[in-house]
Design goal:
The protein has four helices and six strands, in the order ββααββαββα. It is α+β, with helices and mostly antiparallel strands. Bound molecules: zinc ion (ZN) (2 copies).
Length: about 170
């Protein structure tokens, strides 16, 4: 039962759009995503997934949990978003992670006070309440920097209310 399945992830393309935005046509490769008419425009190239070979303890824990829960079933591109956020040099060191049937959500908890802390904390609590009320299958986890632990909604909202240390 407690077994992690391999994941199918709809990785982002180098153009920034998900695989689902790309189509092969008789006239050539096209992308109907946001890259159109930008410097990243994918037209003519076709789907080119981002390098997704990197692992950090946090993204490895998320992929393991997603495999165990078999979530998300739809919008697996969200796992690619989680990957990009956690592989980045400025990756959050603590966060809440919500897995739903339709996608995932990652809420950094270490945003410095200087960066609109109040707004982001309110946003996180509002989002958590939304998931709790509308998505009975949703599960919430807390990454404390070392382990990914399941938390109930009240605990998650409390964690989202604790101010992050002021960056020095
Ligand atoms: Zn593309
Ligand atoms: Zn594109």
């Amino acid at each position: 039962m407690d077994y992690a399945f391999p994941l199918h992830i709809d990785w982002h393309c180098l153009c920034g759009d998900s695989a689902a935005s790309h189509h092969t046509r008789s006239t050539g490769e096209e992308c109907v995503g946001h890259c159109q008419k930008t410097p990243l425009d994918c037209r003519g190239f076709g789907y080119r997934p981002i390098d997704h070979t990197g692992r950090t303890p946090a993204i490895a824990a998320i992929f393991d949990m997603a495999g165990r829960l078999r979530l998300p079933r739809h919008y697996t591109c969200d796992l690619s978003t989680d990957y990009k956020m956690l592989i980045a040099p400025d990756a959050p060191t603590r966060f809440l992670w919500v897995a739903r049937d339709s996608g995932t959500h990652l809420y950094p908890l270490d945003v410095p006070v200087a960066i609109d802390q109040g707004w982001s904390r309110d946003y996180i609590r509002t989002s958590l309440t939304y998931h709790e009320r509308n998505h009975p299958e949703a599960q919430c986890f807390h990454w404390n920097g070392y382990t990914l632990d399941p938390v109930n909604w009240d605990t998650a909202k409390t964690l989202a209310s604790i101010p992050a240390p002021v960056a020095v």
